[in-house]
Amino acid sequence: MSLAKALIPEFEHEMAGLRRVIERIPASQFGYRPHPKSFSLGDLANHLATIPGWTISTLTLTELDFGLPETQARQPKPSATVEGLLRTLDAGVEGAMEALSKAPDADFQVVWTLKNQGEVVLAMPRIAVYRGFVMNHLIHHRAQLAGYLRMLDVPVPALYGPSADEA
Predict the structure, then answer these.
(1) pTM for this one?
(2) Which domains does the chain have, with CATH numbers?
(3) Is the pLDDT of residue 167 over 80?
(4) Nearest 10 degrees: CA dihedral of 37, 43, 126, 92?
């Protein structure tokens, strides 16, 4: 089995869980911030909705300079609605699935570089970028978002088994 084929079931599982969490966001609470140093709910949700799409640049480019105006112009525009978040998420998931399904094993070993206005921020094999900066990053922030839902008394969906709100 190829590496991509082994990664796809996990990707699909995590994206389904992310979608369920985003669907529960109360639109009236986008400004909610549990602490002054925390993201607002809307900012956190917008960040999360874009992360699956990072798979595309990770697997199709060898470097990305997020400090360049042209890179910033290609980023999804923030949404003020749950529907808009879901459109961004779905587009990113679709593109990521296409990139994952086409990636041969050797591509995962290619070094990928993240830059900020020409300065190298990190350089590591694509598999490490995908696992750490896409998947683990997404799971971390999804857990934060689920915590926000709990604080807002919104039922938290089951992710890895039942939640306190879903048997």
Answers:
(1) 0.94
(2) 3-61+77-105+136-151 (1.20.120.450)
(3) no
(4) 170
